[in-house]
Amino acid sequence: MASNEEILAGLAEIVNEETGLAPEAVELDKSFTDDLDIDSISMMTIVVNAEEKFDVKIPDEEVKNLKTVGDAVSFIAGAQA
Amino acid sequence: MARKVVITGLGATTPIGGDVPTMWKNALKGVSGAHTLTDDWVEKYDLPVHFAAKVTTPASEVLSRVEAKRMDPSTQFAVVAAREAWKDSGIEEIDHDRLAVAFATGIGGVWTLLDAWDTLREKGPRRVLPMTVPMLMPNGPAAAVSLDLGARAGAHTPVSACASGTEALHIALELIRSGKADVVMAGGAEAAIHPLPMASFSAMQALSKRNDSPETASRPYDVNRDGFVMGEGAGALVLEAEEHALARGARIYGELAGTSVTADAYHITAPDPEGLGATRALKAALFDARALPEDVVHVNAHATSTPVGDRPEYTALKAALGDHVNNVCVSATKSQTGHLLGASGAVESVMTVLAVYHRLAPVTINLENQDPEIPLDVVTGTPRELPEGEVMALNNSFGFGGHNAVVAIRSTGPKVELPN
After folding, report:
1. Can you give the pTM of this predicted structure?
2. Reduced to 3 states, what is the DSSP secondary structure of residue B361?
3. Which chain B residue has its CA at the smallest distance from A20's CA?
4. Which helix (H) or strand (E) holds B334?
5. A20 with B129: Cβ contact below 8 A
6. Which of B88, B97, B125, B406 has a CA-to-CA distance to B300 between 20 and 30 Å?
């Protein structure tokens, strides 16, 4: 079971790998689209990689609710519980 | 009067050099880009052929990590070569609605496709990455180059196996002549040094099996040739309406004077033994260039080093050029680069343009005992000086499926000395 801090760090790593954004830029209150400029295909790539890394399932209909990095961290933490 | 089309930019990433100056220096010297493969899959799948001609400069050394991640290796090569050609052209301002792309591939995103297939089988559909389709599609290289340059007058992808790269120049010429574009980034890219294409080409006995001596395996016209050597990379040419190039004071390498494409309609893989389709392509390219056989001084031959392929090309050259074939010097540069499949026509067109510009034909290596049935004047040992006056050179490319493509390059000025 990963802590929220660990999930955030792991997510930041995935976002960095996909977009080149510095991991420090991936903060809880940042919006994937408005702040991090992540397009839908990159978002889906991040979801696929997050599912693998955290061993969770993020249903397609859930992805649109993950507006901020914090939303994603909470969802992953909940899914792992 | 058709618009005249000139060449103003060149780019390449190849097994004998990661850019045009390096490739050309090596092509004149005569080096082999073929080496023993160190990839674990060679042993893992017990492949019968253990060598290939990989690019000297991996695309990862040129592109950023994030850029490369979103591109199949074939597209990476295309973008590397196209950026070099664009920079070389010196174009700074352009009407992007008048800029087109014609970028070919023979096989397309085979690495992406098969990696995704492995992921699907091992981890299930949830793990297949969303970028899989845009990365594997054969128009990937053309689309990526169009995005990179902001080329909005259409992005075309001729797919005609090993004739693809040359067919791209044919399309580019038509786009400019017909007035649909003023500038076209034309080229070809291939990245198929993957176990599946290696196994498939081996299965059809197309690849050389000279595992103990990869550097001497690609030997076009030699009596002991036993197949081609798989290569990879990309070539790119900036083609421009002459008035557009003159208006901006561009450096002009030469004229893309004529092109042609024909089909054998004879056999899916074997070339027509009489070379009839290739003959028609040669004659049509000369006609298109409003040229006579006597104008031709040099040919960059398709010459892949297969036992059955090299001879019909000679037959076709003889039929199209008549006795003048004896006055033409021929370079088989696949002896150095290996066979870049859908990129070969583009890379060899770059070499043909440079041969005309510098009046120097590159060398053919590994020709020890010339096939007596192919009595061509092959350039070996040292580069051959071409005549000082106006010259024309041809580049031939033929592909599985019976595709024949020929381009004719004409000089537009006196010989330009090589830079030191």
Report:
1. 0.95
2. strand
3. B66
4. helix B334-337
5. no
6. B88
B contacts of A44 (beta carbons < 8 Å): 130
- The structure tokens 């990963």 sit at A2
Choose, from B50, B156, B302, B403, the residue flagged as catalytic: B302
Residues of A whose CB is below 8 A from B132: none
Complex ipTM > 0.90: no
| Residue of A45, A51, A57 with shortest CB distance to B131 | A45
Cβ distance A52 to B123 less than 8 Å, yes or no, reads yes
Structure letter (DSSP) for residue B214:
G
Residue in B64, B65, B129 nearest the CB of A45 = B129
For A18, which residue in chain B has the nearest alpha carbon? B66
Query: Residue ranges per domain, chain B?
Result: 5-247, 259-410
> Buried (b) or exposed (e) across B260-285, using 16+ Cβ within 10 A?
bbbebeeeeeebbeebbbbbbbbbbb
User: Which of A38-42, B76-80, B167-171, B351-355 bottoms out in mean pLDDT, i.e. has the lowest?
Assistant: A38-42
Fold of A4-80: 1.10.1200
Output the pLDDT for position B2.
82
Model pLDDT, residue B403: 97
Domain boundaries, chain A: 4-80
pLDDT tens across B208-252, in order? 999 999 999 999 999 999 999 999 999 999 999 999 999 999 999
Whole-number Å distance between alpha carbons of A35 and A42: 14
Q: B259-410 in CATH: which number?
A: 3.40.47.10
pLDDT of residue B270: 87
Would you say residue B76 has pLDDT above 90? yes
The residue written with tokens 């080096």 in the block is B31
Q: Which CATH number fits domain B5-247: 3.40.605.10, 3.40.800.10, 3.40.47.10, 3.40.50.720?
A: 3.40.47.10
